[in-house]
Structures are given as C-alpha cells and as structure tokens.
Amino acid sequence: MAQAYTPGLTVTRRATHRVRRILPLAGDVLVQQGEQVQPEQIVARTHMPGPVIPINLANQLCVPAADVPGCMKMQVGDLVNPGDLLAETHGLFGYFRSGYLARAGGVLESISEVTGQVILRGEPQPVQVLAYLGGTVVEVIPEQGVVIEADVTFIQGIFGVGGEAYGPVRMICSSPEEELSASLITGDMRGAVIVGGARMTGEAIHRAIEVGAAAVISGGLDDQDLREVLGYDLGVAVTGSENLGTTLIVTEGFGEIAMARATFDLFRSREGDRASVSGATQIRAGVMRPEILIPLSAEEKEQITEPEHLSGILIPGAPIRVIREPWFGRLGEVADLPSEPHVLESESKARVLEVRFTDGSTAIVPRANVELIEQ
Amino acid sequence: MADREARPIDPEQINVILATDCGSTTTKAILIEKVDGHYRQTFRGEAPTTVEEPAADVTVGVINAATEVGELAGRRLVDDDGNLIRPARDGEGCDIYISTSSAGGGLQMMVAGVVREMSAASARRAALGAGAIVMDTIASNDRRLPHEQIQRIRDLRPDMILVSGGTDGGNEAKPVAIAELIAPAKPQPRFGSSFRMPLIYAGNTEVQDRIHQVLDDSVELTVVDNVRPVLERENLGPARDAIHDLFLEHVMAHAPGYDRLMGWTDAPIMPTPGAVGNILQRIAKTGGINAVGVDIGGATTDVFSVFDGTFNRTVSANLGMSYSISNVCAEATLPFVMRWVPFGMNERELRNRVKNKMIRPTTIPQTLESLIFEQAVAREALRLAYIQHREFATTLKGVQQQRTVGDTFSQQSGGQSIVDNLKLDLLVGSGGVLSHAPRMQQTAAMLIDAFEPEGFTTLAKDSIFMMPHLGVLAEVHERAAIEVFERDCLVYLGTCVSPRGQGRAGRLCFRYEISGGGLSETGELLVGETRLFPLADGERATMKVEPARGFDMGNGSGRTVEREVRGGTVGLVLDARGRPLVLPENEEERRQAMTGWISTLGLYPG
Asked: Which is nearest to B448 in space by CA: B461, B433, B459?
C-alpha cells in the first residue's frame, strides 16, 4: 500500500482546539461551564501547603532530645511569630535558663522527642491557573480545573524555551528566508509576539528581551546562541520553565533554516491579532511541542472552513519536510513510496520514500527522516 | 490482583511460552517453543504500546503483539473474545504467559538514608536492583539544608520511597530524623492523586515503632528488614521484594489495563530492568563467570554487572542516543566525541545537528558521515555510563578493617570498585545503536572503545532485546530461560584480547600463538597495533599470550596466559592500543590511529 504513517507538526488556519487547565492540588474553580473567558483570566485557584522550617531545638538549647517536649513554651497547632519564645530550658534551680526565639513564623506542626526537632509550617502559598486560551469553558472538573475550547489558527513549533505568553502578532521579516536580526526589533515591540523568517540571531534574542517582547518566533536558531542566552548547554528537551522574560519558538529546527512558506504566510494573514503562545517542549513519552494559538473572531469563523486533515498518512503528493541531513530542512512532496526496504549510504536498511523538492529535483530519504506538514 | 498466587506449573508439561515486554512505545512479544527437546525462541512480533489515549489499556497492545506472533507462527494465540488461549492444544494457544513492563517511564523512586555512602548507598542499590530509576537520594550528609531536602521531596513525584538508616541496634535518632523530613513534605505519588505515597522503611529495626508514629498519617507505610543490618553486610532481598510487591499493587494497578494484564500472567509482572538483572545473575551463576550487560536507549543507559556473584545495576538517566544525545555531548564535551571520528567536522554545524536529533529523536543516519558521528556519540555515552557504574559498584563503605604491617603498602579502603575489566568474561550489548549497527564489527568496536575490556573478553549482543522476557521466564522455568539465552538470545561477536598496561608506541606489547578453529597463527603486536582473525560463531581456539613486561593478561605483569577463546560473527580481535586506552593527542596521529583501527576491523565501506 503506497502510504505510511508519520507524525508531523500542525500548521492550520482553523482548528477547534481544547486546553486543559488543571491545578496541581485540589482547589476552587472560579468559572462556570459555558462561560467565555479571556486568556489572562484566572480560572482556578488553590493554596499549596506552606514551606516547612525544621528547627533542631535539642542542638539549639543543648539539651537531650527527650527533654525538648518539656522545654516547649508553645504547643502543636500554635501560631508562632518571629521573635516568640519557642522553648526554654529549666536551668539550674530556675536560674541560667536558655531560650530559643523563633526566627521565622508559622504554625507549630510537630515536636520530636527522638530527634529534638520541631517543625514550623509557613503561610499557605496561593497558586492560580490562567485560562491561557480565550474561548468557551466546555467542561468544569470539580476542584481541579477546566477545559476551554476555541476555534483558532493553530501553529505548532518544533522547539521552544520559556513559558506561556500573550500578545499581538508582529511580522518583522519580509520573507521566510530573511534572517531575524537585532536591527529589525524596535522599542515599540514591547509585549508583541514577534515573527521572523529564517534564523533568529543571538543579538536579536537579547534585543527582544531588552524591549520586553512577549515572544520571538522564527524558522531556526543556532545552538551556540541558545547556549549563550540560557547560560548553559541544554541537555534534554524538557523546557518551559526558563525565566528569560521572552518566550522563544523555532518552527523548523536548529541552524540557518527558513520558516516554511505556508507557516510564514499563515502568520502574516493573522498579523495584528492577539496570540497565546507557549514555549514548553517535552520530547519524551507524552510529547509536547511549543504552540501558537490565535483565536478566530465570529466573522473569521464564518469565512474560514476547517481544512481536511491528512491524519498522519503519507501518500504520494503529501507535503513533507526533510528533518535530517543531507537534505535537512528542505521542503517537498512525496513522489513515490517504494514498499521494499532500501540500503542507505550508511548501509542501514530502511523503508524509504522518494521526495520531489520544490525546485523539481528528487531524492531518496528514509521515511523516518521526513515529517508531514499537516495543513 | 497483586497478591494473586501464580498457578502451579509443571516444567515438564510446558511446550509453548508467550512472553511480552511492554515498553514505553512498543510492546514486544516472543514465542518460545520446545523443539527436539530444547526450548528455542521461534517467532517475535511487536505492536505499539497502548497505555495512553485513545486505547488507554495495555492489554490491547499485548493482544496486537500476540496476534502478530501468532500469525507469523501459524498458531492462534488469541481467541475471538480477545483472550489468550491457554493451555496449548492442537496447534493453538500457549502454556505460560509472562510479561515485563517499563511503560509510563518505568518505576521511579526516591531513596533516603542516613549516610550517603553507607545506608543511603545500600538503599540505592536495592532500588536499582529492583529495576527502578532513582530520582534522588536524600541523606543527612548530602550537603543540603533540611528545608531544601523537604522542598525536594515535595517537588519530586516518585512512584514510591525507600528509607533506610542505622544498623540494627545502632543510631536511632538519625533514621527518625529522615522520617521527620518526609512526613511534613507530604509527598504525592506520580499517578493517582487520591492515593497515598507508598513508602518502604528498611532501616534500624529498633525504631520501627517510632517510624510508624511519624509516618503513618502521611504515607502508605511498609516495614521490612534492614538493608544494612550491620556495616559489614547488606541485606537487599526484603527491600527488593517489597519494591516489586508495591510496584504491582500501586504503580501497575493504577496504569490503564494492568489489573487485567496481571490476571493473565503466570508470574508477577516485573519491571523490565529488574528482569534483565535477574537473567544476567542466573547466567553468571550458572557459567561461573563475571558479566557486564548494557542497554543503551534513546533517553537512558542501563549497565548491569555481576562480579564474583555480586550484582549491581545503574541507570544513567540522561545518557542516551536520541532524547539525551545533547546531554551526552555536553557531559563528554565535543572534542571527546570527535576523537572517535577519523575526519574533521564543522563544530557549529555539529552542535546544530545534535540538537536537531534531540528534537526529532526518531530520525536515522542516512549518510556514512552521520553514522560515524552517531557511533562516536554512542562510545561516549557508553563510556560515561560505565564510569558511573564502576563508581557505584563498590565494596561496602564504612566497614572496619583490621590491618597488619604487611598491609602498609597495599592498603585498600572500603568503597573500592568491584568492577574489574581484567576479570570480565562476557560483555553483552543491546539497544538500537548497538543492535542495529549495519555491521557487527561496528558493534564490537563501540563496545571495545567504550568499555576497554582487558584480558580475554567474549563480546555479544542481544539483538532483539530478549533478556527482559528471559529474566521473568527464569522465575517460573529456569531451564527454558537459560536454554533460550544460550541458543537464541545472544549473537556472539567474538573475543577481544587486550592486555592491561601502557607503553610507548612501537614497542612490543605481546606475542601470541593461536591454534584451533581453523587458525594456526603466531606473531606479535606492537603497542598501538590491532589485528583481526576470523573465528566463526560456534568455533573455539586455544590462544597463548605472552605479554611484554608492564602488560598484564590476568596472571600478572609479563606472565603468559593460555585460554580457550570463542569465535563469533566478527572473530578474534587483538588490541594492543593499551589499557587504559589513550588516543594520541596530536590530531594527525589520532586520525591515523582511528583510520588503522577502522581498517583492521573493516568498520565502514570504502
């Protein structure tokens, strides 16, 4: 059968998208089913148990651990404020007592006669979850969170760093082949989702952070620049918690590589609209890719129909991207899907396909080395 | 289901065995049948693992894999209702069904102990030996402040926790203090927020009551015998058994479809690495040999060793060939990777290539240059994983030693590595980059360069990663497991002969005489040289090696050794590059050395 399955990144003008927004611990959901929410609206809230402060009173008071309960001036459940007398020794005939004044506040949680240690628990810490995607609450999961749905322009990147961000789309390159350099970034791009063409340079990233851009999106990125920006060499692709101030997303990969024309044109068609972006990437079981979501207005929903999905099936004519050298980053379409395994230059035997590049030339590549461009 | 008794099995009545290994992405099934009185692995099949949506039931993948094996074997293994047919009858069904699992990221644990090098190390060994990934080790002397330790316990979401500390009748306060750190952290298990964290206490037995008092409200506590009852001895068995029980009761029971799968199997489901360790130990015991096994995956590398009957396992969590390839390059550094490549490459481009492999982990090398680079990375991943293993597999630390005047110049402290390459008899490699290398010589070269075997070492690969299946099979039918291991599991590559010691290039390293297996050879190797003699799989030859002074083949410096050596698909590899292996610093000389090694083994075309 002349088709095969290969996963790809989704780049689509219209898709019905759902996001699950869940609290790390049980808490309160603040919105109702059917309610319209904005991206930066709080939809659920809870409190994490406060930080724990252990104090070894046996050491502090120079008494055996077993004597500590007898020296306590406060009991389990009491609220301790900084400076409160927490414990005091009996001294000698009531004289020469030594005490321990609390240096931090909290609720006294436990007193151990084995180790002489007491535990103070600090104030609970609030945790809140934002809607992230502007849309309709379609499901409320009691005490946990919500599911939000919206019709969006949906673009998946291949790799990103930094967390969730929001802002209007600003195109700053005239073509997908144009490098995203620092000189193109201006002070009025504060809070914007900047979209470039080919590689984003290290200077451009620094400039974007400096002006306070919400995100920078482009075709490629040099590992050397990433290392310099992060301050360390990224070992495994589990990202999203970096604190750069600006989220970075590449759509194609590492190196000097142009953004796919279709992706670039799609961004251009949505210029000025507000986007929700997330750089979180997790390339492990349960893969997670960075994403750009741009909700459609009611008018746009009327005009744009949802395209038919190829569902990951490689068939002759399907648009693909080669994702490994020697043709890394080249775009084309499937010309043929020979069923017999092929011996590669490396002598590995693999199932292959013939790709016809946009310039009309053809090449044989392993099926594992292409990805479908889902449109 | 976890406490379900395995049904009684009469080994003589077992003719057909179905075994599966449910990995994170693929469920692999093998069929073992009795052929002419011997157990042989006959067919294999695989299907995607189905623990995630839309199927969310592991048994779907198991049935698909079993169906594929059945179709290949011409034997119906699954009935119309989607159940395995048992027992075997009239060309259908199987007598035993067994399984291992590493789906959902395997078994992830946190361990804690009083002293990092003593009770915490013993707890770590127990967890690793049971097949777990150890996410962190908390100890009184781990240089973190108590509040930092508590925060760490809160942040981690392991499947279970193992706590040790204190010898029996020894320190009481410290193990209780560890429990007092865990209790307020209120650790949450990875799966199922409504369940309490399973915690095993395997420390000083005198304070078990105190531990109950401290922990009963916060965790699901199981108390077993101390992993370190006295400083001189470890007792890891009870803790390992408890880990396996809790793995079934808590971790597996919460994974989709596992309750059904547990009802199907004739032996408890084992974590995949635990099963590999099990078979390696039995093989080492049966053959009276020392063995090392390695499984290099996309994200992690597992190393198993049995030396003088002592088993050790380590997991290098971020050393792998796809997800973790960037980390290998970061840890080893690019110059160390590039020393195995006989030509120059642009560093900036290489760094981008490595990252592109990391973000698109399923791609394969199309060009020869890519393959050579990827195999260079594999050497470094394996080398680093083996270093970590050697550092972990040590004699017990903290043991008091009685010394005499005679020990003045040979004092050995506790904590010496028990991994001794000169005593290593069998080195087994598995995992994509080793198993699927286009030429067997490439597998042998990667193993030799990374592990630097000394003396006489048989090299083999587990081509379809059958060791997990055999590890769990050994629990119910040891003879079948060992027969299949001997006949079908391993592909023997040959024997590496290399003396320990270093010398100046061009000086004599050793003389040799080889007879048998169609060979009759004598000669000598100078330092830096390598040679390959064909000795087919199944053939054996007698080899006498006379090392030069300063070189050791196992009998001491300069002493002759005679041994029977085993052939394989590669043959007999004579390696006089020296141990430890040091490649020339001069770029041109290094490339020449690599080109010579590549040419000796015929590693690459052209």
From this structure: B459
